[in-house]
Design brief:
By secondary structure, the chain is of the alpha/beta class. It is 50% helix and 14% strand. Helix 1 runs antiparallel to helix 4, helix 2 packs antiparallel against helix 3 and helix 7 runs parallel beside helix 8. The chain is elongated and about 70 Å long. It binds guanosine-5'-diphosphate (GDP). The site of guanosine-5'-diphosphate (GDP) has 17 residues, from helix 5. This is Signal recognition particle 54 kDa protein.
Length: 296
Amino acid sequence: MVLAELGGSISRALARMSSATVVDENVLRECLNEIARALMQADVRFKMVCDLQANIKKSVNLEALAAGTNKRRVIETAVGKELCKMLDPGKPAFVPKKGKPNVVMFVGLQGSGKTTTCTKYAHYHQRKGFKPSLVCADTFRAGAFDQLKQNATKAKIPFYGSYMESDPVKIAVEGLEKFRQEKSDLIIIDTSGRHMQEAALFEEMRQVAEATKPDLVIFVMDGSIGQAAFDQAQAFKQSASVGAVIITKMDGHAKGGGALSAVAATKSPVIFIGTGEHIDEFDVFNVEPFVGRLLG
Ligand code: GDP
């Protein structure tokens, strides 16, 4: 089920309710069950779905509503509010400020879209008047530096990396120094991806973070990974102080549930979504319009 289907299912559940002659507890229960099924099919974790259902039941007291109140509207508002709450961890992400050397480190699994997203993030800020730069601290994957170099060159963003050096911490620190001197106000560090089972990935990430003291660590997650999203996001949160999430590949088979899980696991907001391979296919993520679209 892709994101649009999730939205379709939720709005169908709400619409069916409005066609009922009387909206009573049974109709509400049926509607919430249908929404729960749709969320689970979209890979939202069972526990989160149960919490959402319980919270809506608690906040909607059908009997206490005045006669003539549009019950469907009340329920729809409650559903929307709960979905927003799931996507809003309550604390905003760090926002880079012009004129000071903001350091942002990217982490994520190999193939998540991390390197592509680094360039998109740099390009987005460049258009806002920042002077971004990219550091390739991925010494693990052959070709990582070439890829970053190619992307950066295309986007006209200064970059730093090495074909010879194998210590990512050294490269990160050197890149940071170089770009601080060059007065870059947004230094973006791309770290190595690898796989979830590799303890070395998390250790390396910790070391790069310790040496560079980033203002923000962004966790990049493939939106189509499904139920694995929560555990993956949590593993990263435990090893690095993740402060924001970017969900990629939302143009593909993303089910939407991954976004909810990543927020819950990292207690950090989604700040952007990737919607394609091109550098401009990158959107600021705002909770309310996203939920508004889900509700149709
Ligand atoms: P990394 O291993 O995490 O650095 O991943 P890459 O940046 O190399 O991306 C892996 C693949 O995903 C590449 O083919 C990218 O073009 C593609 N990709 C990244 N972001 C998106 C996105 O938002 N949408 C789509 N469709 N593809 C993406």
